[in-house]
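hey all, quick one before standup. I had two proteins in the batch that finished overnight and I want to keep them in one place so we stop losing track of which output belongs to which input. First protein below, input sequence then structure tokens straight from the run.
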Amino acid sequence: MERALTPLDCLLPAGNLKFCLLILNQPFNEGHFHCLWSKAALRACADGGANHLYHFTDGSQDSFLPDYISGDFDSIQPEVKEYYKVKIDMIVTLGGLGGRFDQIMASVETLFHAANITPFPVIVIQECSLIYLLQPGKHKLHVDTGLEGAWCGLIPIGNPCESVTTTGLKWNLTNQVLKFGTLVSTSNTYDGSGIVTIETDKPLLWTMAIKR
């Protein structure tokens, strides 16, 4: 089978190849960089490549954020690693709550794994529903964006919660046990304060409606 390729298509202003840009730990050409960055479908740095990106874009780093940085991180400078590490506040997954019930449960189970992989909150959104796995401790949720639907809930999935206390809900909980066969807080709603606080001793799934 013959394979056809235009190697320099990626540098043509009118080129139509879809490509991933991988920046290595080497100096690079300014003209090539801007052309490739603007056209790349995905942008990544291999370890110390992030150093070159950071310093090359000095003063405008926020306009040149890579999608991924990978490697053993032995050559990335500490200040560079710290800069790119704090550039997101949350991971949003679109899809995963529709269709087959076993696949919906797989999405929920993935949230348990995510807690061991990333320090960032992970939410899953589909159609009119959102889920977010609360870790043990205290949480404050702002629910005053105007996008909130009428219902919300707290689901003790994976394990019983022996002590759950909330404020900001129409039906609040005070040191309440949540577990299947005893109590699950579904079809709850808000008290109008715009803030919901939740304290839980075990992982607890928060779910809420999104206005269509």
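OK second protein, same deal, sequence then tokens:
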Amino acid sequence: MGVLSRLLRGLVRGADRMSPFTSKRGSRTHNKGRGARPCGLNLSSRKFIAIRAMIPEFVVPPLDGFKLRPYVSYRAPKGTEPPLTAQSLFSEVVAPQIKEDFEKGCFNKDQLEKYGFEPTQEGKLFKLYPKNYVR
């Protein structure tokens, strides 16, 4: 065999190994699953022990007399509320508190932590001010 044919064969075999391993590539008994967490432990003796604390428990309120259905049609009209932005959140939550304190005369610009302002963004995953502040 020539060098090119061996190189081509290696590329094809490598590409085959790099393709995703799905249940179609495994044996008949292989079931990869969809990422569900196991609810127990597999022992070395090939036994499975179910642990009650690992089994998810869904708490559902009583739905007697509930008129809405669990399905929402794609033909349903779009919502009428505009998307939530930082400006609208500030004007709805923080601005009324600042205005109220200003009218009472107890507003102090050195105590902005009371309204949720953080003077330093050190250690934060997303630094909001002033570099990434939405304008």
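Flagging for whoever picks this up: The longest helix spans residues 86-104. The chain is about 25% helix and 5% strand.
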